[in-house]
Every structure is written in structure tokens, then in C-alpha cells.
């Protein structure tokens, strides 16, 4: 192990020097502010003392880099760059020969993928030399299901925006991160419940996520708090229980409900409800991994012409499955997400991943089986706290 001490102006300067001297695998062992005496012992200035270390073999990497032989980041599936032969070319993104446009789309896609891989690895290495509390919070974000690439991006944004990041303890860093996420949401994805001028709203999503229950909660809220005349339509006729469930809620709330089997019937049902200010439509919960069902759903939505369509997803679904489900819904005009069953999980990162990846705002969060109470319009701060993993706020 090689250990080096640096006295610098600030952490960015330290990071640059450490990377130059010790390479990208170096870790910071400690950092503290020190007073340096100025001229004749006067005008002392505050500086930063940083101690960093790396395994013995790492300087070779730095050496090679100086010789210009080592790529900045070596993709994990590549061979040592000093080996001759064709394999070595894999370290570099191939340039097409002038005037040759073969397979351009596939080629571009491949190059973009390679670049993304290199970038991801670079980001990962950069944040690995960060102080321990920051690394811990980065791991917590990932454990909370925030995708690794978003976690890296958040941490690096934090480092960029705060010069004194190394002086923060874990709790201070967590608070700043919560503020950053909250600000991001505030700027681009402000949570938005149903718009007051939306008259027809469709709810789509896989079976069992809580669509029907959520519709009942929204109906009650709009009826009781906003005094709107609400009507319900259900096309979820594959499950007898779903129809009965919605009818029961409609009875309790004393609002009309129509059951429809075809796209023509939905048009008629909407016509019948022309005295209603708000019509909430429950669609069939099917396996939307199957694109045939997505196509049926699209036909149904074309006939219903909703002002808004909400995709309802349960946070108890595995993060990777959620991404697939949402990708399958890409051909459907989704306006907003609703996440259900917050009370049944402790990982909330998917809220961040999906709203950011698909650039859709969040309409509601649901937190239990009770109609109408267990639903809320989440504030940016609430979402940020959930994402950062401050469980006391659930
Ligand atoms: P649908 O098939 O999507 O219409 O789902 P349902 O509305 O029938 O709900 C399926 C189950 O999830 C029911 O037992 C609901 O009570 C339950 N459920 C709905 N929302 C929530 C929630 O926010 N938290 C919990 N724990 N259960 C919920």
C-alpha cells in the first residue's frame, strides 16, 4: 500500500492530485482542515490535509497513463492494452473508414452502448475515492432500489455543488441530498394530482396493483372534498370480483357505475354520464408483458378519449419488473404515475427511477387498503425523503 499526504486548497484540488499520482483506485483515508502559517508567521490560511492510499500495483497504472498507452478507463471485458494483436482494438471505439456507411444504425448503437459503459465505470471509480460517509449513502441509495447510474449521478452532482463536501458528516450529507432531490422534482416533475379540468380519467396497469381501490379513493376525494359529480366505468370484466368491488364502492358513495365489455359500449357509457363532472375508468388489468393486450388497451383508450391516463404500479413489484412493465406501456399515452402499497415495502427508489427515466410526474401515492384515507399527493420533499431512505417519514 502507498499512502500519501496532500495539503491543498479544497477537495476538488485534492481529487485531481490523487488521481494523477495514485490512479483511479485510490481511496481517501482522512481529510481535515489545518491552519498554515503565512509569511513571518502572520496571515495564517486554512487549508485541507487529505491522506489517500492505493495498493502497490496502482502506480503502474498511473505510469502507463503517462506513457499514453493506457486508456483512461479500461472496459472490464478488455485485455491488457500492452498485449499486441487484434483483441487490443476492443479498447477503442472503431472509427468507420472515410466514405463508408455500413450498418450505420447498429454501429452507432454499439458505440453509444460502449460509451455508456465507459462513462458508468468512470463515474463509479470517481466516486469510490470519496469519503466514507458519502460512499455509505451511495450504497444506501442503491439498496433502496435507486438505480446505480442515478445514484452515481446524484452523488457527483452533490460533490460538484458543494466545495466542502468532505467536511460533512453522514446526516448533513443526507439532508443536502434530500434537498437536491426535492429541488430536482420541484423543477421538472412536480407531483400533480388529477387536473381540475380533466373530465375523463383512465387508470391502467397490471392486475392486482390496486387500481380499483385507488379509483375508489380518488372518487371519494373528488366527491367529498371537491364536490364534483363523479361517475365510474369499469372494463375490468375478466374478474367478476373487480366489477363487484367497484359496484360496492359506487353504492357507498352513491354514484353511478357502468360496466362495459367493448369499445362501443364505453362510448355509450360516457354518453350516458354526460351530467358527470368527472368519469373515472377502470381498465382491464391484464398481463401487459404481452403486447397484444397493450394493443387492446390502446383501442379502448382511443374510444374513451381520456383527458388523463394514469399508470398504476405497485412498489411491491421488483424494480427490474417495474422497468419492463413501464417499457411495455411505452406505446400507450401515459400522463402520470400512481404508486401503490408504500406500506408494504421499505424500498422506494423505483419512484425516483421511473419518474426520471420516463419523465412522467407522480399523481398519487397510496399507503394502505383503507378507502378513502390511504392516498396522498406527495410533496417533492416527501418523495425525496423516501428516496434517500429516511424511513421515519413513511
Ligand atoms: P386491481 O386488480 O389493480 O384493481 O387491484 P385491487 O384494487 O383489487 O387491489 C388488490 C389488493 O391490493 C386488494 O387487497 C387491495 O386492498 C390491496 N391494495 C390496494 N392498494 C393498496 C395499498 O396502498 N396498500 C396495501 N397494503 N394494499 C393495497
UniProtKB/TrEMBL annotation:
Necessary for flagellar biosynthesis. May be involved in translocation of the flagellum. Residues 73-85 have a biased composition (Polar residues). InterPro entries: AAA+_ATPase, FlhF, FlhF__GTPase_dom, P-loop_NTPase, SRP54_GTPase_dom. Residues 61-102 are annotated as: Disordered. Its main location: membrane. Residues 198-389 form the SRP54-type proteins GTP-binding domain. Belongs to the GTP-binding SRP family. It is a peripheral membrane protein. It comes from Effusibacillus consociatus. CDD domains: FlhF (cd17873). The keyword GTP-binding applies. It is found in: Cell membrane. Residues 197-326 form the AAA+ ATPase domain. The gene is flhF. PANTHER family: FLAGELLAR BIOSYNTHESIS PROTEIN FLHF (PTHR43134:SF3), SIGNAL RECOGNITION PARTICLE RECEPTOR SUBUNIT ALPHA (PTHR43134). Gene3D superfamilies: Flagellar FlhF biosynthesis protein, N domain (1.20.120.1380), P-loop containing nucleotide triphosphate hydrolases (3.40.50.300). Keywords: Bacterial flagellum biogenesis, Bacterial flagellum protein export, Cell membrane, Cell projection, Cilium, Flagellum, GTP-binding, Membrane, Nucleotide-binding, Protein transport, Transport. The keyword Zinc does not apply. The lineage of its organism: Bacteria, Bacillati, Bacillota, Bacilli, Bacillales. Transmembrane segments: none annotated. This is Flagellar biosynthesis protein FlhF.
Amino acid at each position: 500500500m502507498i499512502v500519501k499526504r496532500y495539503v491543498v486548497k479544497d477537495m476538488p484540488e485534492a481529487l485531481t492530485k490523487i488521481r494523477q499520482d495514485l490512479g483511479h483506485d485510490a481511496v481517501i483515508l482522512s481529510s481535515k482542515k489545518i491552519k498554515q502559517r503565512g509569511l513571518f508567521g502572520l496571515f495564517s490560511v486554512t487549508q485541507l490535509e487529505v491522506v489517500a492510499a492505493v495498493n502497490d500495483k496502482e502506480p503502474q497504472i498511473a505510469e502507463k497513463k503517462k506513457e499514453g498507452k493506457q486508456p483512461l478507463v479500461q472496459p472490464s471485458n478488455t485485455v491488457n492494452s500492452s498485449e499486441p494483436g487484434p483483441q487490443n482494438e476492443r479498447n477503442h471505439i472503431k472509427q468507420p473508414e472515410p466514405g463508408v456507411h455500413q450498418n450505420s444504425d447498429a454501429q452507432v448503437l454499439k458505440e453509444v452502448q460502449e460509451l455508456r459503459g465507459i462513462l458508468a465505470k468512470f463515474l463509479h471509480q470517481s466516486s469510490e475515492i470519496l469519503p466514507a460517509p458519502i460512499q455509505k449513502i451511495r450504497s444506501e441509495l442503491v439498496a433502496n432500489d435507486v438505480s446505480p447510474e442515478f445514484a452515481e449521478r446524484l452523488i457527483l452532482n452533490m460533490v460538484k455543488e458543494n466545495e466542502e463536501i468532505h467536511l460533512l458528516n453522514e446526516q448533513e450529507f443526507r439532508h443536502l441530498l434530500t434537498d437536491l432531490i426535492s429541488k430536482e422534482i420541484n423543477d421538472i416533475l412536480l407531483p400533480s394530482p388529477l387536473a381540475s379540468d380533466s373530465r375523463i380519467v383512465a387508470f391502467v396497469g397490471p392486475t392486482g396493483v390496486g387500481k380499483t381501490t385507488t379509483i375508489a379513493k380518488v372518487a371519494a376525494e373528488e366527491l367529498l372534498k371537491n364536490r364534483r359529480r363523479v361517475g365510474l366505468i369499469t372494463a375490468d370484466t375478466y374478474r367478476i370480483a373487480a366489477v363487484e368491488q367497484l359496484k360496492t364502492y359506487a353504492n357507498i358513495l352513491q354514484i353511478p357505475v357502468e360496466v362495459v365489455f367493448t369499445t362501443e359500449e364505453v362510448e355509450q357509457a360516457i354518453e350516458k354520464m354526460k351530467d358527470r363532472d368527472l368519469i373515472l375508468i377502470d381498465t382491464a388489468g391484464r398481463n401487459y408483458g404481452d403486447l397484444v393486450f397493450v394493443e387492446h388497451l390502446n383501442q379502448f383508450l382511443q374510444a374513451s378519449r381520456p383527458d388523463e391516463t394514469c399508470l398504476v404500479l405497485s412498489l411491491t413489484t421488483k424494480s427490474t419488473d417495474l422497468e419492463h412493465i413501464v417499457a411495455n406501456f411505452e406505446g400507450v399515452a401515459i400522463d402520470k404515475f400512481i404508486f401503490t402499497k408504500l406500506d408494504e415495502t421499505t424500498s422506494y427508489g423505483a419512484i425516483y427511477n421511473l419518474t426520471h427515466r420516463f419523465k412522467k410526474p407522480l399523481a398519487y401515492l397510496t399507503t394502505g387498503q383503507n378507502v378513502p384515507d390511504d392516498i396522498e399527493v406527495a410533496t417533492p420533499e416527501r418523495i425525496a425523503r423516501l428516496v434517500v431512505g429516511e424511513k421515519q417519514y413513511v
